Amino acid sequence: MITSKFLSLIKSLLSSLPSYVLGCLPTIATIGASPMRGFLEKLMWVYRCLGCPFTGLYYTCNINNDETSLCCYWLEAKYFISIGNHDEETFKIEGLPYRPIGIHYKSLIRGQFTKEMKNIIEECTAQASVLERLSSLPPAYYMGLGIFAGISRLVVPRDCEYLPHITLALSWTFPAIFRRIFGGILVVKDPNEKFKLLEEQSEKKISKKNRKNKQNKKLTKRTPKIPKIPVKYCDDPEYFYVILTGLISIIIPWTVVILAKYTPPVGCKCICKYLSTPASIWSFNSFLALIQHLMGEQSVKGNKYLHIWFSISGIIVFLLLIAFVVVTSISLWVDLFGVSCSCTIVHEMNE
Predict the structure, then answer these.
(1) Is the pLDDT at 215 greater than 80, yes or no?
(2) How far apart are CA 208 and CA 222, in angstroms?
(3) pLDDT per position as a tens digit, 271-310
(4) What percent of the chain has pLDDT over 90?
(5) Which of 59, 54, 56, 57 has the alpha carbon at shortest distance from 250?
(6) What is residue 266's DSSP assignment?
(7) Which of 337, 336, 281 is nearest to 310 (CA)?
(8) pLDDT, position 230
(9) b/e code 142-167 from CB counts within 10 Å (16+ = b)
(10) Of 104, 179, 244, 257, which has fewest CB within 10 angstroms of its CB?
(11) 86 three-state secondary structure
């Protein structure tokens, strides 16, 4: 019995995967694209976006599609300075406690950007090539086709085999594909590294001048200044859009569970039981990410422990989705969940 199941598993892995499954893989990489330095950090961010839909959806749906906004999204809070007016006097707030996005949104004062800042933004961003845009079309095609096929096969027939629930479960990644095709602006380098380098260069210049002043017995001592992006208070914070994105990222994962539970063939192979696990992870993590955003974030990663947890959750979700394909291919639902998940029993119940 065990040998036959093992051989069936090997045969299933050797056989070609359904096209809609292969089409979903690039969508995960697309929504998790980041300018993080190093392969491991980039991979961890991909897993974070897979484990926490709010992270990817917020960046895709709430950040303006221009080089400056996309680049500034990745900057830490220390690289911003708030400039405003109070009683007709200009004041500056050095070192913002939180990044000026979302609930804590402050508009960029683009006219006060220095030449160095503009050069950094230009260096860190790039237009997506024709190949990058076209490479997003097959995933969009397979995902869109899988969504319609999944809905039609859930409503009309009673065949339990190869229902494309994965495309339905990952349908929340579709905005990232749409933006990649029609937006086309990518942040390819980490702007924090560039600002840090600019800060180090400023420190070297100031240190050199201080040494000269000391040799000339001058009392003037200069202190290095951290380059900061000027922002100002905005009367229209993005409360509505942030809350809406949070609610969507919490609720959307459960749509596929509801479809699997209440549409024919009802409860086929207990798919809804299995998919409720990644849906729970997605909703719980999105809720945590929303709360973290409301409290404020100093960096794009936020709390380091939550960042690690989101990344681990992404790995778990990825393994669950892969296991879903394997289990569906070799019919292990009865062995995992019992006779009540038998496709034959479900057919008899529906007839």
Answers:
(1) no
(2) 10
(3) 777 888 999 999 999 999 999 998 988 889 988 999 999 9
(4) 16
(5) 54
(6) T
(7) 281
(8) 85
(9) bbbebbebbeebbeeeeebeebbbbb
(10) 244
(11) strand
Secondary structure class of 193 (helix, strand, coil): helix
Torsion of CA 40, 176, 150, 281, to 10 degrees: 50
The helix, strand and coil proportions of the chain, stated in percent and rounded to the nearest 5, come to: 65, 10, 25
Give the chain's mean pLDDT. Answer: 77
Q: Which residues pair with 76 in a beta bridge?
A: none
Q: For the chain, report the end-to-end CA distance as a whole number of angstroms.
A: 31
Calpha distance 192→59 (Å, rounded): 17
Cα distance between residue 178 and residue 136, in whole Å: 8
| For residues 95-101, average pLDDT | 81
Q: Is 181 helix (H, G, I), strand (E, B) or coil?
A: helix
Distances (CA, A) of 137 to 17, 24, 180: 19, 12, 10
From 326, 292, 283, select the one nearest 15 (Cα to Cα). Answer: 326
Name 284's Cβ contacts closer than 8 Å, sequence gap at least 6: none
Residue 251: predicted pLDDT = 92
- Is pLDDT above 70 for 51? yes
Q: What is the pLDDT of residue 164?
A: 66
The token pair that represents 144 in the structure block: 């869109």
Q: Which residue did the predictor score with more confidence, 111 or 207?
A: 111
Neighbours of 90 (CB within 10 A): 8
Tell me which of 77 and 209 has the higher pLDDT.
77
Torsion of CA 130, 134, 136, 139, to 10 degrees: -170
